[in-house]
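ARCHIVE CARD
Drawer: 12
Card no.: 0347
Subject: one protein chain, sequence and derived structure
Cross-reference: see card 0346
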Amino acid sequence: MTAIRHDWTREEVMRTYNQPLMDLLFQAASIHRAYHDSNTVQVSTLISIKTGGCPEDCGYCPQAARYHTDIDGNDLMSVSQVKAQALRARESGSSRVCMGAAWRNVKDGPEFDQVLEMVRTINKLDMEVCCTLGMLTEHQAKRLAEAGLYAYNHNLDTSEDYYKDVISTRAFEDRLETIGNVRKTNVTVCSGGIIGMGEQLEDRAGMLVALSTLDPQPESVPINALVPVPGTPMEDIERVSIWEMVRMVATTRIVMPETQVRLSAGRTEMSQEGQALCFFAGANSIFAGDKLLTTPNPDVNEDMELFKTLGLTPQPPFVKKAKPETIEAEESALHPLGEKPRWSRPGHVIPRNEAAKRKRSS
C-alpha cells in the first residue's frame, strides 16, 4: 500500500494531475484497489432541511439571500418529515443521510435542538447521519456527536488563495477551525470543494494540499463540478469538462488513499461513460436522488441501472466506522451554552458578487 502522506506540495499535486491521462488513471486505480473494494460505492442522500435565506455571499450558491435565483425557501423541516425522507432514501439504497441547513453557523436554541432530534431519529434507522450546518463550536460538535452524528460536512470550497474571490462573509480559517472542532469528537469529517469557479489549476492543487495535510485526512472528500445557476455571480461560467473531473478525482484518490471520494454536484452533465471513468479513477461515493439541495441530480433509478451495468454495489452503513451511540436529550450531560462565537467577516468586496446583488434590486 502507498503510505499516507501529509506533506504533499502544490507542485507535486500539479505534476500528478498533469501526467498523461492513462498513467494517472492506472496510478489512481491501483491505489484505489489497495485501499477499497473497487466494486462498492457508498450512496448518500442529501436533504435540504432548511432552504434559502442564507446571509453569506458565496458566489456559487443559489441559497444566498442577496441573489435573485427564484429558489423556493422553506423553514426548518419537522423531525417526522425528515424521517419519512430518510426511510425512502434507505429503501432506494442509500446508507447515509446528509442534512443541510442554509445557516451561516449553528446557534443554540430550539432549531438546533430539533436538528439534534433529527440526528437521533436517523441514527436509530441504522443509517449514517451527516450534517452540514455551517460553522460550529467545539461544544456544539460534542452535542451532535452525543446525538449520534456520524459525519460533519464543511467544505473548503477551493484554495486559500482563491477563497477571497468566492466569498467575503467568512474566512478560510473559519473552515479549518470548524473542522478542528469536529475533530475533537468521534464524528468523521467530510470536506471537499468545487471545481469550475474560475480558479486556476494551482488553486485545485492548493485545495488538495490543504485537505491532505490535515491529520487525519478527511474520511470523505466531495468533488463538485460547479452548476451555474441563473442569478448567482457565477451564472455565466463555462462548465468544466469531464476530463477535468476525471483528473481531479484521480488526483484526489492518489493524494488521499483512504478517503472516500464522492462524485457530487454536476453529474447530470456527465455521460454514463464519464461517470464510469470517475469510478475507475477512484470515486467511491455519490449523492443519490433527483436534487442536491437546490440543483439537479440524476434519478436514483438511473444510478441503480448504471451500478448494474458496471457491476457496482451500494456500500452498507458503518463499514468504515462503527455506528455511534445515541444519547437521548433527557439523558444528556451537555446543555446549551448560549455561545456567541465571533466568526470572522473579512468584508472585502468581490465585484461579481456585488454585481449579482445589484441585479436583484434593478
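Annotation on reverse: Residues 19 and 70 are 42 Å apart (CA to CA). The longest helix spans residues 21-35.
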